[in-house]
Design goal:
The complex is a heterodimer of chains A (326) and B (362). Chain A contains 14 helices and 4 strands. In chain A, helix 1 packs parallel to helix 12, helix 2 (33-58) packs across helix 11 and helix 4 packs antiparallel against helix 5 (117-135). The longest helix of chain A is centred in the C-terminal third of the chain and has 29 residues, at 291-319. In chain A, a hairpin with a 2-residue loop joins strand 2 and strand 3. Chain A has helices at residues 7-26, 33-58, 66-83, 88-112, 117-135, 145-152, 164-182, 184-194, 196-201, 206-232, 243-253, 265-285, 291-319, 322-325, and strands at residues 140-141, 155-157, 160-162, 234-235. In chain B, strand 4 and strand 5 (189-190) form a beta hairpin. With 362 residues, chain B is mainly alpha-helical. Chain B has a single domain, classed as ABC transporter involved in vitamin B12 uptake, BtuC (Orthogonal Bundle), CATH 1.10.3470. The chains are: A mainly alpha (326), B mainly alpha (362).
Amino acid sequence: MLKRQHLPVAATIALFILMFMTGSFRYTGFFSAQVLFNLLIDNAFLLIVAIGMTFVIVSGGIDLSVGSMVALTTMLSAGLLQQGGWPAWAVIPFVLAVGALFGAAMGALIHYFKIQPFIVTLAGMFLARGLCYLISINTITIDNGFYTDMAQTKIRFGDYFVSPSVIIALVVLVLAIYIAHYTRFGRTTYAIGGSEQSALLMGLPVARTKIMVYMFSGFCSALGGVVFTFYMLSGYGLHAVGLELDAIAATVIGGTLLTGGVGYVFGTFAGVMIYGVIQTLIVFQGTLSSWWTRIIIGILLFAFIVLQRLFTMRSDRKTGSVEKMA
Amino acid sequence: MTGDTKGRYATGKPTSWLNRTYKHHLFWPMALWMALLLFNLFYSPSFFKVVVREGHLYGSLIDILNFGAPLMLVAIGMTTVIATRGIDLSVGSVVAIAGALACQMISKGSDQNAVSLVIYAVVMALVLSIALGLWNGLLVSITGIQPIIATLILMVAGRGIAQLITDGQIITVSSTPYQYIGAGSLAGLPFSIFLVAIVFAISALLTRRTALGLYIESVGCNPEASRLAGIRAKTVMIIVYMFCGLCAGVAGLILSGNVASADGNNAGLWIELDAILAVVIGGTSLTGGRFYLTGTIVGALMIQTLTTTIYSVGVKPEVTLVVKAVVVMAVCLIQSEPFRKAIISRWKTRRYPAEREVTRHA
């Protein structure tokens, strides 16, 4: 049977199906596997970034630096490929390492010096954006063979196709689900999100896990940046502005509690797909302007947050006065 | 905060003048600001030059006041919100919405220079800003949603709303009275400064000369306890969010009046982050409770001085972000208790090995 803790995720998936069906009935050409695949192609980078964000939010923190990290990755890749003359096989591991290190450094500051994640990642956001401009203030176009191949390759399933980026994103998704639910690291992350104090008293490796969570998020945003580079074929300091908001919104719509401790990676996947469907619906409608995406996302955020609040309020009442005592 | 009280009361020793200065909440923000100004004094002495031209004052210092006005306003509102253990991420969006609505109404009018039209537009924009603040306040107080999430909704949707108002265009107005709000000058000083002064004076009077400030602090320390003590915690929260909305609205009018246009996408972009930064630099803790309005003003001035300094030094403006990031981290590390302890303990000899264990797990 459907467990209670799965309800928000189930609601998100139901909403996605409902939106997709609405689109299919209203617009001709909407109901096709290719439209579904295009959702994945256009949002592969968002999915990867949002997965990293899910871990951070589950651990009770927040990472505002992801959008800037994506931009820095595109810029770094472009700079190294075009100006540095590095080969693609060296650039990709390098930028991934930079992302992971960047995240780990922020995690260390958050944990050891007890500075709020909000502030530390905010500084990280400024720093990464600024570093982009240190490389160049203009767009750098990439004409590296490997990158253009990755942008143009179509992996075909009969009449339909996906891009290699989609495969990368789906692999990350499966790996992340495994890490979250079947490894010690994943369980510790949930425990820290539930109560850091309890996790510490239980003897869980809080310091290591917290740093690794931010490291994972940094890695994911760098990987998202690599995929974004395949998608845009350029490096630019203004790429992915506000992506952190999209990633947080997708995570929350996917049923992850911003207070930490509760959430599913698969829910984030559904959240990203809802994001994509809204954009596709607006494109199909034709008369609506792009800013409606933001307004609709805002309304959805509101609906899901209130829904979550109702759920947590009810469970608060069930567990009784224990929490009030504490 | 706990460190403060310990230092002041627990030791029982009379504190020296130097120690009192050091412990004062304005010490760190002022010291940082002074350091910046000193740097400018040596690097470019012309920084402090103020000249009078056509009855107006000109100079870097005046620029700092003028361009820093919107930030100071938003930061004042943000201080009161943070004092109640909240945060308002939507101020940037409110800035954009207020400017958009005012410019839209003025551009629709038959005579853009009519003072009555401008007053009407300004009042409507401010009413809408307060209403948006009310929305945030209701979400936080009644439904009990975490402030960072509750205001995230308006942060995401707000830019869309601003673009909805302006129909995705950048609206330009040619209205002298409206431009006066952002670019006019009164008694030689920029008019926006007087707006900041008025808002600051009102908020300081209300929070330091009436019980309201005490209520805000008690709600920030413990909402449930203050409710039991007979304070209307929810009303206090709604009021501070409405006040924050109002401040953001005024800042939006200054910003759009200064450039005589409204840009739903870029007006007030990242101002929420700068404002939070100003509040944190000013010594107000993000965990609520005590708040320092003067500290916030100094923090906002410091951020603006930093920006102006970077320009005058001749560093590429794009690099501002890197410097800002370094300053944010430096300020946060200085304010971080574990970091200070780590530094101090380098000079202290350990008395017994277990102490090392204790501090590591603290």
